[in-house]
# Entry
Amino acid sequence: MREPSSYSNLLRHPQWQKKRLRIMERDGFKCGECGSETKTLNVHHDYYKAGAFPWEYPDEALKTLCQECHEKLHTPKPDYAPIDKTKPSQNELWLIKILICGEDAIPTVLTHLNPDWITNDLVRCAILVRICKNDSGQYPSAGDILGKLPNDTHKPTVARYMTDIPHGIKNVDKTVLDLLTKLRNQSIDREIDRLKQRIGDPNLSEVERFEIPDKFAELRKIQKSPITPL
# Structure
Protein backbone atom coordinates (compact mmCIF):
# COMPACT_ATOMS: atom_id res chain seq x y z
CA MET A 1 0.00 0.00 0.00
CA ARG A 2 1.30 3.44 -0.91
CA GLU A 3 2.22 5.81 1.85
CA PRO A 4 0.30 9.10 1.76
CA SER A 5 2.26 12.15 0.68
CA SER A 6 1.29 15.72 -0.05
CA TYR A 7 0.87 16.52 -3.72
CA SER A 8 3.51 19.27 -3.48
CA ASN A 9 6.04 16.71 -2.24
CA LEU A 10 5.18 14.36 -5.11
CA LEU A 11 5.89 17.16 -7.59
CA ARG A 12 9.43 17.35 -6.20
CA HIS A 13 10.07 13.65 -6.70
CA PRO A 14 12.91 12.79 -9.14
CA GLN A 15 10.56 10.59 -11.21
CA TRP A 16 8.20 13.52 -11.78
CA GLN A 17 11.07 15.92 -12.48
CA LYS A 18 12.46 13.56 -15.11
CA LYS A 19 9.06 13.09 -16.78
CA ARG A 20 8.35 16.83 -16.54
CA LEU A 21 11.59 17.56 -18.37
CA ARG A 22 10.77 14.99 -21.06
CA ILE A 23 7.34 16.55 -21.69
CA MET A 24 8.89 20.03 -21.94
CA GLU A 25 11.45 18.69 -24.43
CA ARG A 26 8.66 17.09 -26.48
CA ASP A 27 6.78 20.41 -26.56
CA GLY A 28 9.86 22.41 -27.56
CA PHE A 29 10.10 24.20 -24.20
CA LYS A 30 7.24 26.55 -25.06
CA CYS A 31 3.70 27.11 -23.83
CA GLY A 32 1.09 25.08 -25.69
CA GLU A 33 -1.44 27.91 -25.33
CA CYS A 34 0.31 31.25 -25.91
CA GLY A 35 3.54 29.91 -27.44
CA SER A 36 5.80 31.74 -25.00
CA GLU A 37 9.39 30.48 -24.76
CA THR A 38 10.48 32.94 -22.08
CA LYS A 39 7.93 32.54 -19.29
CA THR A 40 8.22 30.01 -16.45
CA LEU A 41 6.88 26.70 -17.72
CA ASN A 42 4.69 24.11 -15.95
CA VAL A 43 3.46 20.69 -17.04
CA HIS A 44 -0.34 20.41 -16.86
CA HIS A 45 -2.36 17.23 -16.26
CA ASP A 46 -5.49 17.12 -18.45
CA TYR A 47 -7.20 14.99 -15.80
CA TYR A 48 -6.55 13.32 -12.44
CA LYS A 49 -7.02 9.74 -11.25
CA ALA A 50 -7.46 8.84 -7.58
CA GLY A 51 -4.31 7.23 -6.18
CA ALA A 52 -2.14 7.93 -9.24
CA PHE A 53 1.25 9.56 -8.83
CA PRO A 54 1.93 12.60 -11.06
CA TRP A 55 4.45 10.66 -13.20
CA GLU A 56 2.10 7.70 -13.82
CA TYR A 57 -0.03 9.51 -16.40
CA PRO A 58 0.50 8.83 -20.12
CA ASP A 59 2.45 11.48 -22.03
CA GLU A 60 -0.63 12.40 -24.06
CA ALA A 61 -2.38 13.49 -20.85
CA LEU A 62 0.36 16.03 -20.13
CA LYS A 63 1.16 19.32 -21.84
CA THR A 64 3.51 22.24 -21.32
CA LEU A 65 1.96 25.55 -20.30
CA CYS A 66 3.44 28.79 -19.07
CA GLN A 67 2.59 29.62 -15.48
CA GLU A 68 0.08 32.27 -16.55
CA CYS A 69 -1.87 29.95 -18.86
CA HIS A 70 -1.65 27.13 -16.33
CA GLU A 71 -3.16 29.28 -13.58
CA LYS A 72 -6.04 30.25 -15.88
CA LEU A 73 -7.02 26.57 -15.99
CA HIS A 74 -7.09 26.40 -12.20
CA THR A 75 -8.06 28.82 -9.47
CA PRO A 76 -6.98 32.32 -10.56
CA LYS A 77 -4.09 33.75 -8.54
CA PRO A 78 -2.60 37.23 -8.38
CA ASP A 79 0.65 37.94 -10.17
CA TYR A 80 3.85 37.09 -8.35
CA ALA A 81 6.31 39.80 -7.46
CA PRO A 82 8.26 40.69 -10.62
CA ILE A 83 11.53 38.81 -11.09
CA ASP A 84 14.30 39.70 -13.50
CA LYS A 85 14.76 36.45 -15.40
CA THR A 86 17.23 37.82 -17.93
CA LYS A 87 20.07 36.46 -15.82
CA PRO A 88 20.37 34.00 -12.94
CA SER A 89 21.09 35.03 -9.39
CA GLN A 90 24.56 34.57 -7.95
CA ASN A 91 23.31 31.64 -5.86
CA GLU A 92 21.86 29.94 -8.94
CA LEU A 93 25.11 30.45 -10.85
CA TRP A 94 27.18 29.11 -7.98
CA LEU A 95 24.97 26.01 -7.71
CA ILE A 96 25.24 25.05 -11.39
CA LYS A 97 29.01 25.62 -11.30
CA ILE A 98 29.40 23.29 -8.29
CA LEU A 99 27.26 20.64 -9.98
CA ILE A 100 29.40 20.77 -13.12
CA CYS A 101 32.58 20.58 -11.00
CA GLY A 102 31.81 16.98 -9.96
CA GLU A 103 29.17 14.53 -8.83
CA ASP A 104 29.69 14.93 -5.06
CA ALA A 105 26.99 17.61 -4.83
CA ILE A 106 24.35 15.74 -6.84
CA PRO A 107 22.86 13.56 -4.04
CA THR A 108 22.35 16.59 -1.78
CA VAL A 109 20.76 18.64 -4.56
CA LEU A 110 18.60 15.71 -5.63
CA THR A 111 17.15 15.25 -2.15
CA HIS A 112 16.89 18.88 -1.02
CA LEU A 113 16.18 21.09 -4.05
CA ASN A 114 12.71 22.24 -4.98
CA PRO A 115 13.14 23.27 -8.65
CA ASP A 116 10.66 26.09 -8.13
CA TRP A 117 13.33 27.86 -6.07
CA ILE A 118 15.30 28.43 -9.30
CA THR A 119 13.88 31.48 -11.08
CA ASN A 120 16.05 31.30 -14.22
CA ASP A 121 14.51 28.79 -16.63
CA LEU A 122 17.77 27.90 -18.39
CA VAL A 123 19.62 27.26 -15.14
CA ARG A 124 16.70 25.19 -13.85
CA CYS A 125 16.76 23.12 -17.04
CA ALA A 126 20.53 22.63 -16.78
CA ILE A 127 20.31 21.55 -13.12
CA LEU A 128 17.49 19.07 -13.76
CA VAL A 129 19.39 17.51 -16.64
CA ARG A 130 22.56 17.26 -14.53
CA ILE A 131 20.94 15.49 -11.55
CA CYS A 132 18.93 12.91 -13.55
CA LYS A 133 20.88 9.86 -14.71
CA ASN A 134 20.66 9.02 -18.40
CA ASP A 135 19.66 5.65 -19.84
CA SER A 136 23.20 4.39 -19.27
CA GLY A 137 22.97 5.14 -15.55
CA GLN A 138 25.44 8.04 -15.80
CA TYR A 139 25.01 11.65 -14.81
CA PRO A 140 25.05 13.92 -17.90
CA SER A 141 28.18 15.94 -18.64
CA ALA A 142 28.30 19.66 -19.42
CA GLY A 143 28.15 18.78 -23.12
CA ASP A 144 25.09 16.60 -22.56
CA ILE A 145 23.39 19.49 -20.74
CA LEU A 146 23.97 21.84 -23.66
CA GLY A 147 22.53 19.22 -25.99
CA LYS A 148 19.29 19.15 -24.00
CA LEU A 149 18.61 22.88 -24.27
CA PRO A 150 15.49 23.98 -26.17
CA ASN A 151 17.41 25.60 -29.02
CA ASP A 152 20.95 26.38 -30.11
CA THR A 153 20.63 30.10 -29.35
CA HIS A 154 20.61 29.28 -25.62
CA LYS A 155 23.82 27.23 -25.68
CA PRO A 156 26.36 30.11 -25.53
CA THR A 157 24.49 31.65 -22.59
CA VAL A 158 24.38 28.45 -20.55
CA ALA A 159 27.96 27.57 -21.53
CA ARG A 160 28.97 30.94 -20.07
CA TYR A 161 27.09 30.10 -16.85
CA MET A 162 29.18 26.94 -16.55
CA THR A 163 32.60 28.60 -16.83
CA ASP A 164 35.01 29.39 -13.97
CA ILE A 165 34.22 26.05 -12.35
CA PRO A 166 35.33 25.96 -8.68
CA HIS A 167 37.69 23.23 -7.53
CA GLY A 168 38.91 22.07 -4.16
CA ILE A 169 35.76 22.84 -2.18
CA LYS A 170 36.49 21.36 1.26
CA ASN A 171 32.94 20.69 2.42
CA VAL A 172 30.71 20.25 -0.60
CA ASP A 173 27.62 19.20 1.35
CA LYS A 174 27.72 22.21 3.67
CA THR A 175 28.38 24.60 0.78
CA VAL A 176 25.47 23.18 -1.21
CA LEU A 177 23.11 23.13 1.78
CA ASP A 178 23.95 26.79 2.49
CA LEU A 179 23.20 27.66 -1.15
CA LEU A 180 19.93 25.73 -1.15
CA THR A 181 18.89 27.40 2.11
CA LYS A 182 19.44 30.82 0.54
CA LEU A 183 17.47 29.83 -2.57
CA ARG A 184 14.63 28.46 -0.41
CA ASN A 185 14.48 31.61 1.69
CA GLN A 186 14.49 33.85 -1.39
CA SER A 187 11.58 31.81 -2.74
CA ILE A 188 9.74 32.27 0.56
CA ASP A 189 10.35 36.02 0.37
CA ARG A 190 8.69 36.04 -3.04
CA GLU A 191 5.71 34.12 -1.68
CA ILE A 192 5.41 36.54 1.23
CA ASP A 193 5.43 39.45 -1.24
CA ARG A 194 2.68 37.71 -3.19
CA LEU A 195 0.61 37.30 -0.04
CA LYS A 196 1.10 40.97 0.81
CA GLN A 197 -0.32 41.87 -2.60
CA ARG A 198 -3.14 39.40 -2.05
CA ILE A 199 -4.16 40.79 1.32
CA GLY A 200 -4.71 44.18 -0.30
CA ASP A 201 -7.24 42.74 -2.75
CA PRO A 202 -10.68 44.22 -1.96
CA ASN A 203 -12.30 41.05 -3.32
CA LEU A 204 -10.47 38.82 -0.83
CA SER A 205 -12.84 36.69 1.21
CA GLU A 206 -12.96 37.02 4.98
CA VAL A 207 -11.73 33.44 5.34
CA GLU A 208 -8.66 34.12 3.18
CA ARG A 209 -8.00 37.42 4.97
CA PHE A 210 -8.06 35.55 8.27
CA GLU A 211 -5.73 32.77 7.00
CA ILE A 212 -2.99 34.94 5.48
CA PRO A 213 -1.38 36.05 8.80
CA ASP A 214 -1.04 32.37 9.75
CA LYS A 215 0.63 31.72 6.42
CA PHE A 216 3.05 34.58 7.06
CA ALA A 217 3.97 33.06 10.42
CA GLU A 218 4.40 29.59 8.93
CA LEU A 219 6.66 30.86 6.14
CA ARG A 220 8.81 32.85 8.56
CA LYS A 221 9.16 29.76 10.74
CA ILE A 222 10.36 27.73 7.75
CA GLN A 223 12.91 30.39 6.88
CA LYS A 224 14.45 30.09 10.34
CA SER A 225 14.64 26.30 10.24
CA PRO A 226 17.46 24.17 8.75
CA ILE A 227 16.82 22.82 5.29
CA THR A 228 15.70 19.17 5.25
CA PRO A 229 15.24 16.50 2.55
CA LEU A 230 12.04 16.93 0.58
In short: The two ends are 21 Å apart (CA to CA).
